[in-house]
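Data availability (excerpt). All sequences and predicted token strings are deposited with the supplementary files. A representative entry, ADP-heptose--LPS heptosyltransferase II, is shown inline so that the format can be inspected without opening the archive.
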Amino acid sequence: MTSFSDQRPPRLLVVRNDKLGDFMLAWPALAALKAASPRPHVSVLVPSYTAPLARACPWIDEVILDPGDNAGREGRRELLAELKAGRFDALLTLYSTPRVGWLGWRAGIPLRLAPATKWAQLFYNRRVTQRRSRSEKPEYVYNLELAEALLEALGIAVPTRPAPPCWPLDDGEHARQRALVAEATGLGDDRPWLFLHPGSGGSAVNLTPEAYARLARDVDARLHEAGKKPAWVITAGPGETDNADALCETLREAGLEARRLPPSPGLEAFARSLVAADLFIAGSTGPLHVAACLDRPTAGFYPARRSATPLRWQTCNAEARRLAFCPPEDAHEADMAAIDLAAAAESIAAHLTSPSISETRP
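Structure token line:
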């Protein structure tokens, strides 16, 4: 086994090349790897979509773009050459596919570790049995366990697990983002800002816009009764602006102070803006997990499907800063209309008026 030192740190390649939310739930594992001693050089293989956030991640040293399954022979050849040139000591695949396993094997990476699932595991010489389909732990914990297994296989002591935030931003950046959102929306900084992201990017079962409107009206009324006057900031992803605009108009017609956050110049700019939220409300989708990495208070709405439960896709912010809602046990697993919105509104309003949350504003 190679003897590592500060002069010869391990070179690691971590793969999470799917959706934004999945990638954000890899940040605790990336933070754990960078906390090891000697401090590894960490590269990631990601698609172009998540690359802007990979470049912003403080736990990543190098970003390698994955052209995907349809890259063609030339694209696969170029990627293989780049992986060979990286001279990596280990490959950690958080979501295993045959193509990535084959690439790691062909690149000659000596230690290749992945979950022991599907026939893709044949390309790996270290496997960890996790049975994620049972959804017995949060996804980010499964990822942490794989990172820790990799360090153990390399003969490196496993550090203490990282505490939130997984994306630490200093107070100056917090203040800057508050100022940018205030300028973009015309909102004053004298009230709590409740960010509401009604879209799902097509990757998650979600509440309808009508349900989000009912929820917002109920939360708003409860906060007014408690002496707080919130402002609602409606956010949207690509292709979601029309629905977000319609929801914003519905809330204004109901007497709520609501603004649409204008489109950001890119994914990183949008992600950073979420640190301005006093609470971020969404379905189990990428922006919810971005807000959680920033350790903002979150309220997530989940289906009851085993592969998509609140436990499996739990946000990685501090426990006291997260709320989760899903259909009751006797409802259909994807029947989001079965969620008790009045109870959810009561919990959200109580959460926002609790001292531990009201003191978390940047």
